[in-house]
Amino acid sequence: MTWTVTPEPYDSPVAAALWRAYYTEVSDRWYLLHEGRRTEPAELEREIAAQPGADLAPPGGRLLVARYDGEPAGSAGVRLLDGATAELTRVFLHEPVRGRGGAPLLVRAAEEAARSLGAARMILDTRGDLVEARGLYARLGYTETAPHNDGRYAEHWFSKELG
Questions:
Q1: Is 113 exposed, middle or buried (0-12, 13-18, 19+ CB in 10 A)?
Q2: Are 112 and 78 in contact (CB under 8 A)?
Q3: Are 76 and 64 in contact (CB under 8 A)?
Q4: Edge-first strand listing for the sheet containing 71-80
Q5: Average predicted confidence (pLDDT) for the chain
Q6: For the chain, what is the total number of helices (H) and then of strands (E)?
Q7: Which residue, of 46, 74, 138, 163, is most buried by count of CB atoms within 10 Å of its CB?
Q8: Closest to 48 measured CA to CA, from 30, 68, 22
Q9: Which residues form a coiled coil (predicted)?
């Protein structure tokens, strides 16, 4: 079984399916933790439609899709915030392929995409309950920093110099 990571149009059917899977998982995790319920279908549809991912399109962004043995397995997005800083977002792998080396490969590909956009630094935010993500970022050299945004769900902020 092999991994590949390639750019993908943000509005492709593959990108849409991965965005839906990502958003469903992180939203359900938040609601189950805080309210003891899953995301309501109408809210899920509204939020997915409100964030289509156009900011991940060239020239200022990239959406990357990881494939495991040729099948779409995950994604990561990069958007250039200014001439030197890019933001990593939407890092996701389907549960059955987690633990098989895809996440570090995907994040490193996103870092390379950020460099190609001219970024020297990558930033990101995540939630406290996404402990797997926080562990991944720490293993890949990201340092927890002071807040760089006031996102509703942002609880931990990270940064990495891309060199």
A1: buried
A2: no
A3: yes
A4: 3-7, 61-68, 71-80, 85-93, 121-126, 156-161, 143-145
A5: 94
A6: 4, 7
A7: 74
A8: 22
A9: none
- Helix runs in the chain, H state only: 13-35, 41-50, 102-116, 131-139
- Domains in the chain, CATH or no CATH each: 3-161 (3.40.630.30)
Residues 6+ apart with CB under 8 A from 93: 66, 73, 74, 102, 103, 106
* 8 Å CB contact between 112 and 119: no
Is the CB of residue 116 less than 8 Å from the CB of residue 98? no
Please tell me the number of Cα atoms within 13 Å of 12 on its side-chain side. Answer: 15
**What distance in Å separates the CA atoms of residue 98 and residue 85, rounded to the nearest whole number?**
28
> Is the pLDDT assigned to residue 132 strictly greater than 80?
yes
Q: Is 136 helix (H, G, I), strand (E, B) or coil?
A: helix
User: 60-81: per-residue pLDDT in tens?
Assistant: 999 999 999 999 999 999 999 9
